[in-house]
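re the bet — no i am not wrong, look at it urself. input seq straight from the record:
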Amino acid sequence: MANQQQKTTYTAAEVAVLEETILKQKSEIDELKRKLEHMNEVFANAQRARFGQSSEKNTYVLQEQTSLFNEAESSQDHKAEEPKPDTIFIEAHEWKKKRTQAQMMNDLPEEEVLLEIPEEQRLCGKCGGKMKPIGKKFLRHEMQIIPKQIKLLAYYAVTYACDRCEKDTGFAHIISVKPPFPLMKHSLASPSTVAYIMTQKYVDGLPLARHEKIWAREGVSLSRATMANWVIQCSEVWLKPLYRHMKQELLAHSVIHADETVVQVLKEDGKPATSESRMWLYASAALLKHQVRLFEYQPDRSDKRPESFLKGFTGCLVTDGYAGYNQVQKVTHCGCWAHARRKWREAMPDGATEKTSKAAIGFRYCNKLFAEERKCVLYKPQYRKEYRQGKELPLLEEYFAWLNTVHPEKGSKLEEAVRYSINQKQQLCAFLDKGEVPISNNLAENAIRPFTLGRKNWLFCDTPKGAEASAVAYSLVESAKANGIEPFAYLQHVLVQLPYLGKSPSHEELETLMPWAPDIQQEYKMPNSDAYEKVYLN
């Protein structure tokens, strides 16, 4: 019994060692738990990115939605006006009735096809007399596709001589027709051909390798190297002046959106083929009359790139949280609440509610802000500023006060969401004093998406010149789309006109070729251009 009692007795030094071991093990367990939670967050976000919805809409029930069961009783109003059948108004948007098939096709030329009985069969089955037409009955509509036609134009200049001069003087006065300016000397390239190749590549995302196969099916041997040469030369010689003119227009605007994405260039001096370069986007704000989308290729993501491009701009710059934009001086830096909300969404575990997740609370604050902003989206800037000061400023004060009460685990997604909003507080609140500034940078993300989608098909650019030509071409076609202009028709028109203006056209001449010019709008406006415009406005 004494021996057993002696075994359970420890000295003070042994107790201290045991306590130290327990504390060390407890610390290790806490660290392992933190790593496990972090890995679960990473795994959940990977699963959500691969299989979940891409929309950032709310996926759980907000507190204000718990009254849906008694909504009829609480919202009843006997004096409420009945909606008209033709138009339904929801917040600031107007929903029209679904268009019929005839309305959707009313801009297509219609060709009438008469189904007639052959002349020899127009005999009456009763008396044998000849039958005559007395009317026609509509049966149906069909949409017919006519494949493109490829022609080889052979230009001949007709020469004219004056008979009277030859009779009077013995020497004929001879004149000849002045030929149209070619895009490139000693080349088969025409404005329509180059415009078609650019539209297929930069609007429809078809790489030149597929172009080559399509041309081969049409019976034309046209290599991808030749097409690349046409695109690069036309961009450098003829389209660059339009690009520079659009940049002047953009820098005169009061609000500019900016974003950037990765592009791979194989043959770049001093860099391996696997390295990453950048395609930068700069876009005018929504609701402006002149919409500009400018792409710029640069070999890196240096903060000197936006500073150099935006030199002379003194308005509001709307961006995400990338610190490189802070190098731009003399501008008002405005943040993106869509990015802040995205951080909260990434920190929310599956099935999160406001009672179980602080990330859900932050997500709810962002949703409330977007809900308030939708109510004033069509206000004039001065009235939108007043609305924001009265409705949204108190909400943001409450939001940032709540942030100070959140103490997340270090290295967690929750800490990342909290840190983003705190570090970006000044930029995120800048819109309160600027009625013309939106609360998110979604417009830039929508504008750069055609490039990222096309990149999935053509994967990389071969040379820096090709990347620069792509930036010019994307700028023109996306600016045309943003102004409701059909891209192919616009490119063909400018490639016809620019050779006549020379390599240094005047400001006035370039202004007539802008996608917002009255003549361009009247001639090349797309019948369903609102489909493009709604994307940028939203």
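see?? Residues 191-252+478-537 form one domain. told u. also The chain has a mean pLDDT of 83. so pay up
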